[in-house]
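Researcher: Last one for today. Full complex below.
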Amino acid sequence: MVSRAFYLWILLGFMGTSAVLAQPGRYSFFSSSTDQLDLQRQPHRIEAILTEFENGPDTLFQAVDEDLTPLYYYRHIRDLSCFGEQCRPLNINLYWSITGSYLGFDLPEAEYLSKTDHEPFSVLEYERMNQILSDSTSVLSDLAEADLVDDTDRPIPQVDAITGATKTNLLKQIVPGAAYTTYELWHIIYGKTREDIVQQTLQRLSPAILTRLLRSTETFNKIWVLNLIASTQECLDDVSELILENISPENYLLSERAIRAINPCMLASAEFQAALMDKIDQLDVVQQKMALSKFKDLSYLSGETQARLNRYLEKENPMIVHTVLEVYSGRDVSPPAIRSITTLLEESNRFVSLKAYDTLLSMKITDERTVEQLKHYQKQISISNTSAI
Amino acid sequence: MKRRTVLARLGALSFGSTLPGLMPKEVLVPKTTIKKGQIEADVLVVGGGTAGTIAAIQAGRAGMKTVLIESGSQLGGTITTGGVAYPGIFFAWGKQVIGGIGWELIQDCVSVNNDVLPDFSVPHGRQHWKHQIQINPAVYSLLAEEKCLSAGVQIRFYESPVSAQFKRGRWFVRLQGKGTETEVTCKQLIDATGNAFVTSLAGFSLLREQETQPGTLQFTLGGLDDRKVDRDLLLQHYDAAIERGELKKGEVTNLSAFFGNNGVTTPQHIAGADSSTSVTHTLANIRARSSALRILRFFKKVPGCQNVKIGMMRTEVAVRETYRIDGLYKVTHEDYVLGREFRDAICYSYYPIDLHNEDGVTPNQLTDGVIPTIPLGALIPTDSENLIVAGRCVSSDRLANSALRVQASCMAMGQAAGIAAALAAQGDCSILDVPVQEVQQAIRKHGGILPDFKEGL
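Model: Here's the assembly. Have a good evening.
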């Protein structure tokens, strides 16, 4: 279990570097993820969950607060590390956040990691191990155990065009002399344990957890919760503003996930529509298209939304104009919107004018002037099939 | 019934069937003749692969009457038919460098299929593939087609050009298809065949390496479990198979990569794979499929691998290199690795130098911060008029080509070619008569990404 001195070193770890616990004989290394701040909190309770892992049944420990909200998870890993016929126990605690991201490891008192011939790790090697274990995209994910064997006298080219894992490059992915330990720990961290943690967290999901994760400074957590929200059609008023905060040109993936998480229920309110339109102005054209398309399935477009959509009809990018026309297709819209669309009939670009024509037809316009303009357009251009597809 | 009545009734039945011997509702059709036709277009795009699809959509969205011909059955080229469905790279050093229509298509594939983009804010280091996007090739094919149709593009599958002549300011391109012969008259011609086929037909010189990069047939093997295989034994069997001629040296680039291979890539090389003609392409496909069968049979003989089976296999070998045009400018290796910013740049390109040969491939990453560009001159064959090329066959030396031939770059080139052709068609002039700033402005208008030229052109 963690101690007070341990918390001090967690703080040092948060300041950017992994740290060695001052307590003699006790090794502890944590990632620079801010999630490890949760490790500082005294849990109200530790739940022991018996789980079937890759190597058999074991216990997954879940630390929870007073509201039974998960804070973090950990496992005691007990294994044998063998070199030739000599074995010594591998005894290490691994920690994860509530979304399954790796937080760090520590060892029980007087325990240490060792390499070939049981030579103990140096501090640098512990740091190296922590660094490798923090990399969720390591090539270790694509390698089999057999690939760890140094087989340099074989004539078969070992270059893998996808992983790039030559025998030389592999040394950068492991702690030299502790290849199997590195491999085994990495696969425990990113294997079934992670899936089980996610399932456990989902069982205790609450608005508080959603809010906490959306406020996290860790991109992984935000993406995790945005993916979750995207799979639901609920309004989630508590977090809708936090979702909008992630829509920006700063991080493409986060912005894209946030846009995907928006559903028609959230967009039912005029205020949320206005807030989304504010965001759209800042985005690149592809994300603009994604966000504008969110308005297609809405039964209600506020007057302000329509006014702002009309401005997008003046954009130079024909794809954006097309997208807005698709939003308007089949709707009753305001007279200014109809005027904006009718203006597009005079566009020299047929891709735009034809779409405007199709959109007006879909609205069943009765205004005489507009009807005349449609007839005029129809005469001007040969239209055998008025739908774009 | 009297015999005469019977005969009379039989005769009446025959007459009612239009001709004697036909069943009811059968009609006899005239003998097949090749259906000849003529089409006029503003822009003709030959090749519906990675670059050509984007070029056609762009030309259509610019309001041009656009025809797109493709010799196969679907759009997408190496992405769909070839099955190399992890396009990249669109982001460099944390910011997006290739956008526009190609990126729009990729983003739509991801959204429609609930797939996931990588986190581009995390540097890929030496593992550039981490910033490539795995998409479903079938979804790409569907959306590409939808976007072409939405842009008003006339798509013609199963057709290939047999001649291309430039006369009186127009291209006259004869197409042969299934049961059809068509002459297309167009103002601008885009060669997106990947092999510079139309450029060559039109009489322009091409360049080719003495030894081209190998192709790969995308396929997977199921039923392989590396926990049941003795690695030393596997390698012994491999050595013996090479010696007996059951496997060809160099056709397998990494034996262990067949285990757990999800089809993103296949560790196979087919030397000299050439898709430029029906003869060479047939040969490449046969050799690739023979290779797949050899590999399957090899594994069957290895203890622990007897349950091996084919998982999936694409219909064609994916080709990396055939011909390149002799363009107004040839992008060199130095241009590329130093990130030279051309004044007539029409897109960025970002990928390591990635030359495949008989030893496999060892990507050579770009130096931190370097983002190469591709100039318009590399897309235009020397001495040509109203002709532009897009895709892997642009004018470049071999090493530069090994990087800029990848799919994201081809999409960007396709968009540039589409815009350049559209502007030239609008002005009824040569592409070179369109000020390059106008081309660049139009690329940006349609969402493409270009350097900020601080001094102006």
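Chain B has eleven helices and 17 strands. The first helix of chain B runs from residue 3 to 16.
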